Amino acid sequence: MLSFAPGARVLIRDEEWLVRRVDPSKDGGWLLTCDGISELVRGREALFLTALEGPIEVLDPAQTKLVADTSPTYNATMLYLESMRRRSIANDERIHLGHRGVMNLVPYQLDPALQALHQPRARILIADAVGLGKTLEAGILATELIQRGRGKRILVVTQKAMLTQFQKEWWSRFSIPLVRLDSLGLARVRNRIPANHNPFNYFDRSIISMDTLKSNLEYRNYLENAWWDIIVIDECHNVAARAGESGLSRRARLARLLSNRSDTLMLLSATPHDGSARSFASLMSLLDATAISDPDHYTPQDFRNKGLVIRRFKKDIRDQVSADFQDRITTCLRQSASAHEEAAYRALLDIRFTQGGNHKAGRQQELQRIGMQKALFSSPKAALQSTKRRIALLEGRPAISDDEQIEVTGLQEFQESLQALVNDSRAHSFSRYQKLLQLLQSSDFGWSKDDAGDRLVIFSERIETLHWLQEQLTRDLKLKPKQLEILHGSMSDIDQQELVERFGRKDDPIRVLVCSDVASEGLNLHYFCHRLVHFDLPWSLMTFQQRNGRVDRYGQQHQPHIVYLFTETVNEKIRGDLRILEILERKDEQANFNLGDPSAFLNVYDPEKEVEKVSDYMAQGVTPEQVEAELDHAATTTGDNDADFLMELFGGGADSAPDTTTATAEHTGSSIDQIDEPASLFDSDYHYAKAALTQLNKEDTLCQWTPADETKMISLTAPRDLQERLKQLPKEVQADNDYYTLTTDTQRVVLAIETARQARAEEESWPQLHYLWPQHPIMEWIGDRVLTQFGRHCAPVLECLKLQAKEQAFILMGLVPNRKGQPLLVQWQVAHRVPNAQGQGAFTLQSFDDFAARAGLKAGKLPNRVQLQDAHPALQTLQTALPDAVATMHQHMVQAQSSFAQQLSTRLTDTLAELERLQGKQVEQLALDLEGQIETIKRGRLEQRTQQINRVFDDYRLWVQDTLTTEPQPWIQVIAAVCHPERAGA
Predict the structure, then answer these.
(1) Distance separating alpha carbons of residues 351 and 394, to the nearest angstrom
(2) Looking at domain 329-333+427-567, what is its CATH homologous superfamily?
(3) How high does pLDDT run on average in the chain?
(4) Structural domain boundaries in the chain
(5) Which of 178, 425, 626, 745 is the most buried (most CB within 10 A)?
(6) Residue 977 — φ and ψ, nearest 5°?
(7) What is the pLDDT of residues 919-933, one digit of tens each?
(8) Residue 954 is inside which H or E element, if any?
(9) What is the DSSP track for 683-714?
(10) DSSP output for 328-354
(11) CA–CA separation, 85 vs 862, rounded Å?
């Protein structure tokens, strides 16, 4: 038992360390990766070479010193037991804590964590539809990994507008602190760390935007020299390979780099592919490079059994969330085009567009017209800007052809018709705007600019339209300054985040938010808003889904009201094109209620490609009826396209239910049945924290603190060691006066979150009330402090009248780690006996939970008569019996380890055999791909690529072996001893 094994406690340089990993070193000794336990080194990680350190003492559990606990009701022992219990969670496949986050738990939210925990390493694409709560699902999984010792270092990569929102969600609901590394956050960080230090190494948990990483070469070097336990890539469709692109984008290359810097990888996206097999395969390869041999030809069976994907639509979980998801109201408003608009339509159709100086009738010219028409469908202002740019481009050329001059003349006539619309200061000629104004002022719609709790989101894709709407609506609705704001992608990350936060604060003057599609991904706009207006219709079904998901999402308190504005014209060609957009709106509604995934209709799975496809319909003169028939056919049949198997995996046709058995966790029973919350010796986390602070402040004043039993609230001023620990938290979370308030009441925390969201000042926009639960850093600090109550390598003794006379009992923890130091098997057993007249007899084992029930071990329930002192003979009797108890536990754990290792060995053998098959398949596919090439080139590429394949599989094989191979020796720790007051068998 005295080997250098993961889980063993050792003394190095007169400090106590926990061995987390043991690796052979080139000098013939061992490299020990250790976590500090004793006070001076607690919270630190260190590497030690056994050949250089001299004598290293491995603490023998049989030599644990038994000491008396003189605290009232054995409070110190109960705290010690509870703290040890809370940090000894095995790497099993059940939910232990994540379900207790600050949220209204719904069973489906547990499925991604359960599915990921079944894997040797947790790597998963959470591809649930818009609004189902992917951020919360990722937080549950992260919490479970943190509790298992697999989440110390975390990196989240997301869109710049999402940084603060994601950061606040994980902190306020799961107490997971992420230091924000946006432009402002980086400036703060630079002031807090030494020059030239890697910020990713300085902060264990951070969040950064993909744009920052992509554009800053300095950070690539930082990434290559950092390692995390968990990496999360939000909106991961932005890092997937694109169909038709020969190489990887900078974002895709960055994601590939990140995928190799962490054991756990979570990818989040409601739109996880662009319809091509290669695009989706690129995401699968990020999760598991061994899964797919041919990225262009594979089926769901190639990765299905690996549990890499989970995807649900609203209709799949509606029975679980009927109270939280309300069916949306959809209103389609139509207005006849004005005479000026009809004139603009005619002028647009008369333009003879040119390419390369020549006019050529056909598809290319029609696509140019469609591009201009798209701007016109947004607003006359947007079309006017596009027209001016086109005229300037043509007139700015050294020589202009006759055809180009004809185009300029047509553009000028179009410009005049647009100018008439723009010059109409009251916008009476802009029919769609007049319909919007009429809607907003109508009593039937029910919106009031004076109601701070009823805000409005208006979407338009053109920035010129956004600015025009801001000016017109401010005047016509008589809005005050800052009551209407615009949000678009050209704004800085700080400005975007600030505006989204303002929209979520009830006391902010903002009433209307006019957005471009930069706001359509991920942002929560539903807190005081359930009305959304599409001022112009998107040409992409995926954009429809994303836009509507800003208010039609989990947590919406009101029935969402979506409004579409349509223009009716007498111009046959324009009317047909507008009808195509109306068909898209209908298909989005159909998908919302029947299919789940609207992108199945256009079947290209990328917003830009959807726009191209819709533009092609218009350019080719396809009738609306033909378009609708084609969309319905695409959603109900399968053909020879790359997306077919993706459709099969993610939901099939419009009338078929998705095959959720391929996407949900491979567990039996409901998700709720998979919760295994450890029994506690305390009534609640509040009871535990209050008892701990009372005990810690008994002899010396550790900190100033105040309990409040009625509200289950604790307030404290952080002492110096806690202040140092809290420096790892985001600046926004740290209290200026080091005064913190925590409560176990989740409803109060929810109220604090809502109150903070409405605060004007940045430092007040974070909840001042924290969640009092095991994962909060202050609770972790309390747990560390109570572990030092009895000194190094000591265990407390308590007396219990419910035991048999002279009975001896030792509370022991046995742990079997894998080669990576992760505890795979954790058992709490009690070795107990009633010794014979000679003070001997065999120990038998009883589970801790059963013993605790028998002995009445519960905080505050066991009286301490303080009869035992450190020199009491009963302590010596127990000390003499301790080695036999430890030996009994060791024998039990050796048998448990053997049985458990045999199960893992079978799993490991199967896994390695599957890896061997996949490796052969990839090498075989490589040979097929290189057929027909020049022999010398073929041989070189074959050798190079084969080496890459072998390296990937060898790395993964080693990782699996380390994960699924247990250390041969279990580690035993003596936690406490219990005896009957009649001298414990003396």
Answers:
(1) 14
(2) P-loop containing nucleotide triphosphate hydrolases (3.40.50.300)
(3) 85
(4) 1-59, 123-312, 329-333+427-567, 341-423
(5) 178
(6) -125, 145
(7) 888 888 788 877 777
(8) helix 935-964
(9) SSHHHHHHHHHHHHTSSS----EEEETTTTEE
(10) PEEEEEEEEPPHHHHHHHHHHHH----
(11) 19
For residues 230 and 138, the answer to whether their CB atoms sit within 8 Å is: no
Q: Whole-angstrom Cα distance, residue 981 to residue 986? A: 11
Note the pLDDT of residue 646: 53
User: Which residues neighbour 272 within 8 Å (Cβ) at sequence distance 6 or greater?
Assistant: 125, 127, 236, 237, 240, 280, 283, 309, 311
**154 and 204 Cβ atoms separated by less than 8 Å:** yes
In Å, how far from its chain's centre is CA 385?
A: 40
Residue 348 neighbours by CB under 8 Å, 6+ apart: 369, 372, 373, 376, 414
pLDDT greater than 80 at residue 596: no
Torsion of CA 650, 653, 657, 658, to 10 degrees: -10
pLDDT digits (tens, 9 = 90+) for 422-450: 998 888 899 999 999 999 999 999 999 99
Of the candidates 750, 861, 754, 748, the one whose C-alpha atom is nearest the C-alpha of residue 801 is 861
> What interhelical angle do 777-786 and 75-86 show, nearest 10?
130
Backbone angles phi, psi at 197, to 5 degrees: -85, 145
Contacts 24+ apart (CB under 8 A), 738-741: 739/715, 740/715, 740/716, 740/770, 740/778, 741/713, 741/714, 741/715, 741/768, 741/769, 741/770
CA dist 310 to 103, 270, 632, Å?
21, 11, 26
Residue 777 has pLDDT above 80, yes or no: yes
Predicted confidence at residue 274, as pLDDT, reads 65
Amino acid at site 508: D
Strand 45-49 to 30-36 pairing: antiparallel
- Whether 539 shows a pLDDT value over 70: the answer reads yes
Q: What is the spatial distance between Cα 741 and Cα 727, in angstroms, rounded to a whole number?
A: 17
Instruction: Give whichever of 153-162, 713-722, 760-769 has the largest mean pLDDT.
Output: 713-722
Structure tokens, 221:
């070097």
How far apart, in whole angstroms, are the C-alpha atoms of residue 262 and residue 231? 6
Mean pLDDT within 627-645:
66
Find the helix or strand (DSSP H, E) in which 896 lies. Answer: helix 873-929
Alpha-helical (H) ranges within 118-182 are 134-147, 163-174
Give Cβ neighbours of residue 477 (< 8 Å, ≥ 6 apart).
Answer: 437, 440, 441, 449, 484, 512
pTM > 0.70: yes or no: yes
Distances (CA, A) of 845 to 7, 98, 568, 830, 833: 22, 31, 82, 5, 9
Selecting from 3.30.1490.20, 3.20.20.140, 1.20.5.110, 3.40.50.10810, what CATH number does the domain 123-312 have? 3.40.50.10810
pLDDT digits (tens, 9 = 90+) for 35-83: 787 878 876 788 999 888 888 888 889 999 999 998 999 999 999 999 9
| 1-59 against 123-312: fold identical | no
At residue 876, the 3 state secondary structure works out as helix
* C-alpha R_g of the chain: 33
| CATH number of the 1-59 domain | 2.30.30
Q: Hey, what are 490's tokens?
A: 């050209």
pLDDT at 650 over 50: no
Cα within 13 Å of Cα(575), Cβ side: 10
**The predicted structure's pLDDT at residue 968:** 78
Nearest by Cα to 660 from 264, 284, 280, 320: 320
Q: Give the contacts of 294 (CB within 8 A, at least 6 positions apart).
A: 925, 929
Would you say 551 and 536 are in contact if contact means Cβ atoms under 8 Å apart? no
- The 3-class secondary structure across 92-126, one letter per residue, is CCCECCHHHCCCCCCHHHHHHHHHHHCCCCCEEEE
Convert the pLDDT of each residue in 723-755 to its tens digit. 988 988 888 899 989 999 999 999 999 999 888
